[in-house]
């Protein structure tokens, strides 16, 4: 087998990079291409695979040229799904592409190959630039075009009842020179209750019965979280954004508590893994456990005498119940705790037996850290197309501020804290209650003015990071998750960036609405005054 692969590698044709020029492939890439040709031999009859352009948790993507074309060889992207992908999930992704793809900025599917457990989805190749390379030099007009076309794609897929669940720049390809766009990667897609994608209905049915059909890794599956006992979230600049010259402090275990019943999860005690970009773009959300910044979301011990009195009262109830059990002859039996009792671990560094006795709650968590909506972070079971709109809002926030990625969190708790520093802790708490959850924050974080925030970030020049950060603290009276990203992209003032219309920030505010029920829909976003001229031109 190894000898055959080596022979196949030696016979590979000249390779081409994304820009069309020749480049030398690594031995590892050559072996992967040879392995793919060996596993799916019919591929080599139709395509010449010239490069591996992306690799993720669920798939690898290759650049190929069509052998059948007599004149000019067309280029295609071959998406090789991991062999362990659930058959229903694979079929659902294909059905999403065939039903909704090929129009309205949604990627089309050209062919599909299957050999044993190997599945190859063939799509037209869209040459594009990495988003991180262009976010700092896009004009305001270009930003409007980009977001407008993203909403065209979202409106289209939402019409079919498709929730993409992984909206981010790496999944919305942008050919800058030709002004072409393509929404890709429906591997994590789910359906709304009235979805027109039949196989997504089956995915929902399997998920409700407890079956795993998404092919998600552990960090993306529905997880149980401790519930009801609200733990304080400490959010100070010292903990959220330590100086880059200081070593990161040791992470302390922390839990987010909601009103739903659940048990503790190891997930909240360790950083989550992050999927690499499938289409070859550098993933700025990758987390290196050795370099994680302490976000300061920690448990604070109580010094409130009222809390101490409440715990003593609750403890007396436990002791009284225990005595009654012993009198009745039940020895060494654990006390069956009443789920209506107030928990005894509020503002402490432990999880009490009441919280441990709660039932588990499982909710979809698929998506990329930094782009997950609040309802996903607090484990709401009812999740709809609004989560795609939130992710689009995060992209617009990056474009208006010139910072990508804007949010960078190692777990859902830190991600929720970062959202609170922008949208306000009081607003987040109120929204959580509306959604049937409970979130407690130790410090009140005021809601920031989005225009002020973005303009300060866009004015930042190399060497001025600390000065700008001090100004933000002074004017906004709050800490913000953007300090970590100040050195990611240095911005120069473009001709029209000092005249961003109010409509841009009004749309951003409506996209980042914490409540999914009142968040603007993709179809309504297209009618926003910001896109008035584009609607006339495109006839939307």
From TrEMBL:
Look at the named UniProt entry and state the broad enzyme category this protein falls under: transferase
Q: Where is the Protein kinase domain?
A: 47-531
Say yes or no: keyword Nucleotide-binding present: yes
Keywords of the record, alphabetical order, are: ATP-binding, Kinase, Nucleotide-binding, Serine/threonine-protein kinase, Transferase
Q: Spell out the molecular function terms from Gene Ontology.
A: ATP binding; protein serine/threonine kinase activity
Q: Where is coiled-coil annotated?
A: none
Q: What is its EC number?
A: 2.7.11.1
PROSITE patterns annotated for this entry? PROTEIN_KINASE_ATP, PROTEIN_KINASE_DOM, PROTEIN_KINASE_ST
InterPro entries, A to Z: Kinase-like_dom_sf, Prot_kinase_dom, Protein_kinase_ATP_BS, Ser/Thr_kinase_AS
User: Key word Ribonucleoprotein present in the record?
Assistant: no
Q: Tell me a GO biological process for this protein.
A: mitotic DNA damage checkpoint signaling
Record GO cellular component, one term: nucleus
Entry binding sites for ATP? 79
* Record's protein name: non-specific serine/threonine protein kinase
């Amino acid at each position: 087998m190894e000898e055959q692969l080596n022979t196949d590698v030696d016979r590979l044709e000249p390779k081409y990079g994304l820009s069309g020029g020749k480049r030398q492939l690594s031995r590892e890439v050559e072996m992967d291409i040879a392995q793919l040709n060996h596993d799916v031999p019919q591929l080599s009859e139709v395509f010449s695979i010239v490069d591996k352009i992306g690799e993720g948790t669920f798939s690898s993507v290759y650049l190929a040229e069509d052998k059948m074309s007599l004149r000019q060889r067309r280029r295609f992207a071959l998406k090789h799904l991991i062999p362990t992908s659930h058959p229903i999930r694979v079929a659902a992704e294909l059905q999403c592409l065939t039903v909704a793809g090929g129009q309205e900025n949604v990627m089309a599917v050209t062919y599909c190959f299957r050999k044993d457990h190997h599945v190859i989805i063939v799509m037209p190749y869209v040459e594009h630039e990495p988003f991180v390379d262009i976010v700092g030099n896009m004009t305001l007009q270009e930003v409007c075009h980009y977001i407008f076309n993203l909403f065209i794609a979202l409106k289209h897929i939402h019409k079919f009842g498709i929730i993409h669940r992984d909206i981010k720049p790496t999944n919305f390809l942008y050919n800058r020179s030709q002004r072409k766009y393509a929404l890709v990667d429906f591997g994590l897609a789910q359906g709304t209750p009235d979805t027109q994608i039949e196989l997504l209905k089956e995915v929902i049915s399997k998920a409700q019965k407890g079956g795993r059909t998404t092919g998600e890794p552990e960090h993306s599956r529905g997880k149980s979280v401790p519930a009801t006992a609200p733990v304080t979230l400490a959010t100070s600049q010292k903990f959220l954004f330590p100086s880059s010259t200081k070593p990161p402090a040791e992470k302390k275990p922390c839990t987010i508590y909601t009103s739903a019943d659940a048990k503790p999860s190891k997930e909240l005690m360790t950083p989550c893994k992050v999927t690499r970009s499938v289409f070859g773009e550098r993933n700025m959300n990758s987390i290196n456990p050795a370099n994680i910044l302490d976000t300061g979301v920690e448990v604070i011990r109580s010094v409130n005498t009222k809390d101490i009195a409440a715990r003593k009262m609750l403890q007396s109830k436990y002791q009284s119940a225990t005595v009654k059990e012993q009198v009745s002859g039940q020895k060494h039996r654990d006390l069956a705790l009443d789920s209506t009792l107030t928990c005894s671990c509020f503002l402490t560094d432990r999880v009490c037996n009441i919280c441990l006795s709660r039932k588990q709650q499982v909710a979809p968590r698929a998506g990329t850290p930094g782009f997950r909506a609040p309802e996903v972070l607090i484990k709401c079971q009812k999740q709809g197309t609004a989560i795609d709109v939130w992710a689009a809002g995060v992209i617009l926030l990056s474009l208006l501020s010139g910072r990508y990625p804007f949010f960078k969190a190692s777990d859902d708790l830190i991600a929720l804290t970062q959202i609170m520093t922008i949208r306000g802790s009081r607003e987040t708490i109120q929204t959580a209650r509306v959604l049937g959850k409970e979130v407690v924050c130790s410090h009140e974080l005021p809601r920031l003015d989005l225009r002020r925030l973005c303009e300060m970030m866009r004015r930042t020049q190399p060497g001025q990071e600390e000065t700008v950060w001090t100004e933000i603290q002074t004017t906004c009276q709050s800490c913000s998750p953007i300090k970590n990203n100040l050195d990611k992209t240095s911005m120069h003032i473009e001709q029209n960036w000092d005249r961003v219309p109010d409509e841009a920030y009004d749309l951003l505010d409506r996209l980042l609405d914490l409540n999914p029920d009142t968040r603007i829909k993709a179809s309504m976003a297209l009618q926003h005054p910001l896109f008035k001229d584009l609607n006339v031109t495109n006839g939307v």
